[in-house]
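Before our next group meeting I need something from you. Please put the record directly below this note.
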Amino acid sequence: MGKVGKAAAPEMSDEEFESKGRATLDEYLNIRDMKEACECISELGSPERMHLFVRLSIEHVLEMDAKSRLATGSLFHKLIKENLLSVQQYLQGLNEVLEFADDMAIDIPLIWEYLGELMGSMIQDKRQSIDYLGKALEPVKPSGKAGVLLANILRTAEKNIGAEDLNDLWQSTGLTWDQFVPSDENVLDFVKSKKLEYTLRKSKADPIALMMKELGFMLAQGKCDNDHIFDWIKKNTDPELTKQKDFIRALVTVVCQSTIEGESIRCDPELLKFRAKCLLRYIDGDVDRELQALFAVQALNHKLVNPPGFLRIIFDVLYDEDVISEETFYAWQNSKDPAEQNGKGVALKSVTSFFAWLGEAEEETPS
């Protein structure tokens, strides 16, 4: 007769898993032994149900004291670091709470602060990725509270790693405040009210260059309308900056780049006509800004190694759409500014026919 094997342990139900998980969390909060907590959680032997542990933990400590919430967030960080909890499982468990957070706010008015402590204390290391925040906050966007929660998360994280390192992490995500702040709120005012202005400073990077990156991405989306561009600039750019030459040059450059089609680097005149409204809004008939716009086009043409017909098409559209006046075209043609000589000679040759046409048009205009 063969030996009778040891009976397999019955599979733990979700209720049993949650009960043991809650007991483990309570013990951890009582003695604050992170290593032992990780061992106990590992011994639960249900890695596929770790999202349940995240949900029950958040619900369990949500109305406890701040120290318990911060400690629980720290535990999540450690579990992920030890590969006992995946980011996906964390997001799944978190989502199960956040999708009802707005309703819970009726009974827990400070819920956004409490959740900020739980989620912000997850950020403990300046080398970790916080790209997951974009997805984490999705369930909260319909309530209009995503910006508030994000601010509370970052303020909590700032206490762990400092403003400078946190800003580096924030910038590395590519996320921007306008993705979370309701469209009817001013992003700059909102961020300042939360004392998080430093997150608007692009760490070790030129803010104009980063603006070009953001606008370039939006303009590359063919269906992006001009009003969306106006809204983004209004929410993310200081009004005084929009009058400065660096802004004008950057805007003109990124708009013209967005109209390039094909390997031959040809400007799509119809698309440029459509985008001309973006240029008109900020150049606004100011002759200095008009001249900076032409210098920007010259620089782009030089960078692209003077593609055939490129500059002529742009000049035609800028003239036809009243973005640039005749006087400014002539001012550009005659400019001897030493700082603007790169590519000037080649540019002048490529638009000889444009100025010939402009001269003929003037002669035909009745006095």
